[in-house]
Amino acid sequence: MIIIIGAGSHGLSLAYHLIKKGYTKNDIALVEWKRIGYGSSSRNASRYRYHFNSKENVEYALEAIKYLKKQAKELEYNTMLMRTGYLWLIDGEQEYKLFRKLDSFWRSYNIGGKFIDCEKYSYLKFDGNCYLAPQDGAFHHDYILYSYYYSIKDKVSIIYDKAVSLISSRNRVEGVKLSSGKELQGDKIVITAGAWSNEIMSSIGLNVPIFPEKKEIYITEPLRYFIEPLIINSKLQIYFSQTLKGEIIGGIEDKREYKFEEFTISINTIIKFLKTIKNLVKGIDGIGILRGWSGYYEMTPDSSHVMGYSDDWPEGLFIDAGYSGHGMMFAPYSGKIMADLIADSYKSKFIDIFSPSRFNMNRLINETLVI
Ligand SMILES: Cc1cc2nc3c(=O)[nH]c(=O)nc-3n(C[C@H](O)[C@H](O)[C@H](O)COP(=O)(O)OP(=O)(O)OC[C@H]3O[C@@H](n4cnc5c(N)ncnc54)[C@H](O)[C@@H]3O)c2cc1C
């Protein structure tokens, strides 16, 4: 029996890929303590990008986005995948130099962008240079999530309960204890519990450094559609874009401690976001926020994800978590390569690169382009 803990996009994608390999309801138990997509998978900004600063993440994104586009054609619901670009509003000479360097790095992967005078974007109030990464884009997370759920709901055993601790003996996993007091027996356990993953690992004294960082995100009332790319400004620590319905959606950095907090939003941060977008975009002075919500970035020390297993863990224990704010776009591909590993013992090169052992082996990836 394979036990998957957490029904976010990664747990569901893994279940979907295992079912495709012929596994059945008797072979897979999916444990979720709240609801399908309770975590970050239903709380994100639904954007995809190739443009990271580490080669490991660029190489992962190249494969993962190719696979995301393929899945978009196969999944039950229309994922609304579209290429919109990411537009960085560059602040000052130092950031310009950094983007020159990044651009030549990205060119080596055929994903170079364009430096454009920001005046060319007539709706922007920003003097200076813009950098457009035209290859990046958007999708709708709910349609990916619920396509997976729709495909697997009658084919795996879904258990609504909290996994409180792992059971292991003689260096093998044996099952999971649930908060209801029940025990599930399993010889393979996969932790896909997002920001909560380390709570489960620590139940048997293991530590995977994944920390919750609360993020707020807002959506305005709809306007005509005029902002195509996702716009980012690192000095103001803001990102925003427009949905096809015309709402402006985005967030503003509000650096917080890594800790579990209530899923609330704060009026001060809403006002800061609203003022900042009004200072950057023409003609939106009267606009208001319609709603907002919060979720966790599942942060690791190098802002890169953790997948696979560690040789010093009990046999049969796997993880796929810690996506540090960019895990929705990677869920289809990660689910596939985790299923290849678990079902066929086929080890993609990425399993070693993003291994949890890297934190003890000084092989950090150091991603700094976290948006
Ligand atoms: C504001 C915001 C914006 C973002 N924008 C983007 C973006 O534009 N593009 C992008 O690619 N990514 C984005 N992300 C990141 C992305 O949403 C996450 O990386 C991704 O959804 C993680 O998926 P997951 O399946 O690993 O975790 P989650 O979706 O968090 O799923 C974990 C699941 O495990 C369950 N669980 C936890 N503990 C237990 C337990 N003990 N027992 C049983 N179940 C348990 C939870 O209830 C949850 O359903 C954003 C995130 C946020 C918060």
UniProtKB/TrEMBL annotation:
Name of the top EC class for this enzyme: oxidoreductase
Ranges in coiled-coil conformation: none
FAD dependent oxidoreductase domain residues: 2-341
Top-level taxon of the source organism: Archaea
EC number annotated for this UniProt entry: 1.-.-.-
GO molecular function: oxidoreductase activity
Gene3D superfamilies: D-Amino Acid Oxidase, subunit A, domain 2, FAD/NAD(P)-binding domain
Any one Gene Ontology cellular component term annotated for this protein: cytoplasm
InterPro entries tied to this protein: FAD-dep_OxRdtase, FAD/NAD-bd_sf
Keywords for this protein: Oxidoreductase
Protein name (record): FAD-binding oxidoreductase
Organism in which the protein naturally occurs: Sulfolobus tengchongensis
